[in-house]
Task: structure prediction
Amino acid sequence: MRPDRAASRSEWQDLGPCQYPAHSVITLRGDQLTPITGPAMQIGTHYRVHILLPANYQPDRAYSTLYVADWSWLGERSSMQDLLRIYEQREVPLSELRSVPEQITAAEAAGEASPVIVIGLECPDDLLACQIRRERDFTPNSWAPEEDYIRGVLWPELPAGLTISGGGEAFGRFLRETVIPHVEQRFRVDPKQRGWLGTSLSGLWGLSQLNQRSRLFSHYLLNSPSLWYADGAVLTELTVQSPVNLRGIRTVYLSSGSEEAAEQPLLDLLGAQLREKQIPTEQRTLPAATHLSAPSSATRIGLPLVYPASSAP
Result:
């Protein structure tokens, strides 16, 4: 019996030998999220969830889990290539890019990182709708300048009175109430080794989660997080946090491209704040990388720092 057909983990573990698909996909409905309908576009509430098991997966072992945002961008080289072509107007050969799952596999195969179960969160909409969905789901609060950007650049036809940004709390409930239970009822995992990999706005969301006492994750890989959002409010929130409230955080990895010089001071400030709060923090600047190309190497470097091979249970 396949695990996704069983009612509970305790049931299917007792059924004898099972065939575990290395990569399974299920669509989960986010009832916690707010659908948005407007001219020529609908912003939905479903996410396509990819579950990737490590090589030589053993069902009786408790694995770390890594939840990866922006799977529609980072899950395949071709998607990364498309964004570089559209937004940076340059053609990067596929041979020079590495998707996030490829980077994870390489780190584990090299014996540098402990095996993790990867949960990729994919927006199933088209590119523009996914970009607006990111504005909804990964921003911790509504911010007028971001609403101006959405209306002025992304969706000029957006009806008056509709607010897009600020749905980060609802997205957190979606993970807590829907996605995480779906995974942890089907696979043996260690909840204390749950990680978040976020890039840009989803990196901002990860940092906002870190600031919460009821946080979902203990390990963070944050690539080029949007620290500028709401005039750096997430940094201000971290400043007033007591180190006691942050004890559950095991490690944080920060990365950015060398071509993101304008953002570097805020990232350096974040790194200093985290270390001041006694949070183990690693920070890397990726040479010759831009905001969109940095994800092609960030995880390969960061995974062994966050889940080193010696930490395997």
Confidence is low (pLDDT under 50) at residues 1-17. Strands lie at 23-29, 36-38, 41-43, 46-52, 63-68, 116-122, 189-199, 219-223, 251-257, 281-286. The first strand starts at residue 23 and ends at 29.
